[in-house]
Specification:
Elements: H1 3-32, H2 42-84, H3 90-123, H4 131-162, H5 166-189, E1 196-198, H6 202-215, E2 222-225, E3 236-239, E4 246-250, H7 251-256, H8 259-274, H9 277-297, H10 301-306, H11 314-330, H12 333-355, H13 357-370, H14 379-385, H15 391-397, H16 408-419
Parallel strand pairs: 2-4
Antiparallel strand pairs: 1-2, 3-4
Helix pairs in contact: 1-2, 2-3, 3-4, 3-11, 4-5, 4-11, 5-9, 6-8, 8-12, 8-13, 9-11, 12-13
């Protein structure tokens, strides 16, 4: 069997697995949403189930479109695009080729983003973005890719063209670039999409400062972003590396959580810092990127020839990198997520020690309710896709005991008992 035949079979298995997992999840949620409510009022529980079910049905269609795009590119598209671009400079041709490939895939999948934002999220009350704002965001993303992305493509192409064992130096170049992006993201990239303002609540800022000091976390500020301009969901994160680290709070989070609950959420995030989780994640990503580049560097020329690309051309390598990387990373997702789930438990434990177990528990309960997150999932779906432990497991680890009937009244009694 040819190399292209083997790759095609593997990609087909990958898509079939995605479809099977989504079908199992959809069936599980469809049945569970009509059953005994968990952590929510019956109406809210049913609504969250409907939302999860509709998202999964979209994911099924997306997987089919992904497979059609793969067949298109590997069967005919790469050959056609290579012949259509009449540019002699191999570096410039590489940039144009990859830019067009990415643009085509982006346009082919954009309808899913539009549907999720303006149909599904609108139906369930999440969306606050306007078509104009959404369009402006897409234009910014496109401009960022055309400028910074094209420079990256040029750099990788130059390495492939001029350096022996390019796969190693290409990996090193991209890996260091990922670290750099993590450092500059909160100060240079994120402000292009959200307005960052210093936290105005001085008392809360002092409490956050004390929390950071107890954890040994040095930040260049606590900022609030206008996430409510686009979405109603709640979140917070620590962005950046080194001196660029900053605390970022969604304005929706400030609206919905009490002060102690907010500090508990930040305590959880500080747990990731305290345990070095971000560096562990960067290390894992580096190992996977190294393995992927090693495979790309040792693909047989027959595979390139089968799809109509010259093996020595930089754009040939980058194109296969983009098309095959989803297949590669999918099979490592269970391992990555297993490690991530363990880290989340440890971060919960640290956050509860910093700000109180009851406060973190109450914050998680509010996040589930406000984000309309369906609390139940099929085990296979959890195994492949959950980077966080199921919410019930997290709550039980924090001492939560659900009422016998699972109703909202039982939940409220639990919340009130922690405030007393």
């Amino acid at each position: 069997m040819s190399t292209l035949g083997i790759v095609s079979i593997l990609y087909g298995v990958y898509i079939l697995m995605k479809l099977y997992i989504s079908v199992m999840q959809a069936g599980f949620v469809a049945k569970a949403k009509d059953g005994k409510p968990v952590l929510m009022m019956p109406s809210k529980f049913f609504k969250a189930g409907r939302y999860a079910l509709k998202r999964e049905r979209i994911a099924i269609v997306e997987a089919l479109v992904e497979y059609l795009l793969f067949i298109f590119w590997m069967g005919w598209g790469l050959r056609w695009l290579h012949g259509a671009i009449d540019i002699e400079d191999p570096l410039l041709k590489s940039v144009v080729f990859i830019d067009l490939l990415v643009a085509f895939n982006y346009l082919a999948t954009l309808p899913f983003d539009i549907y999720r934002k303006f149909v599904l999220d609108e139906e369930f009350g999440f969306n606050r973005s306007s078509p104009t704002l959404f369009l402006m965001d897409q234009i910014k993303i496109a401009l960022l890719f055309l400028t910074l992305g094209s420079l990256v493509i040029y750099g990788v192409s130059w390495i492939i063209l001029h350096i022996e064992n390019w796969w190693f130096w290409g990996f090193l170049f991209l890996f260091l670039l990922i670290i750099l992006i993590n450092m500059v993201y909160p100060t240079l990239i994120a402000p292009l999409f959200n307005r960052f303002t210093p936290l105005e609540d001085r008392e809360l800022e002092e409490e956050i400062g004390e929390l950071l000091e107890r954890s040994g976390f040095k930040s260049n500020g606590v900022y609030v972003i206008d996430s409510s301009l686009r979405d109603t969901r709640l979140n917070a994160y620590f962005g950046g590396l080194g001196r660029t680290k900053r605390v970022v709070l969604f304005d929706t989070l400030l609206e919905k959580l009490e002060r102690k609950e907010l500090l508990a959420v930040l305590g959880h995030e500080l747990g990731h810092f305290r345990h070095g989780d971000i560096y562990k994640n960067i290390f894992m990503l580096g190992v996977l990127f190294f393995a992927l580049f090693f495979l790309l560097g040792h693909l047989p020329p027959s595979l390139y020839e089968a799809v109509g690309l010259p093996p020595e051309a930089p754009h040939s390598v980058i194109a296969l990198f983009l098309l095959l990387s989803p297949l590669f990373f999918f099979f490592f997702m269970p391992l990555i997520n297993f490690v991530s789930r363990r880290n989340e438990f440890e971060a919960d434990r640290y956050g509860s020690e910093l700000a109180g177990r009851g406060n973190l528990r109450n914050a998680l309960l509010k996040l589930v309710e406000e984000n309309t997150h369906f609390p139940l999932s099929h085990p296979l779906y959890i195994f492949f896709y959950y980077s966080h432990p199921p919410i019930l497991e997290r709550l039980k680890a924090l001492g939560f005991q659900e009422g016998e009937d699972g109703t909202e009244e039982a939940l409220r009694e639990e919340l009130e008992s922690d405030h007393r």
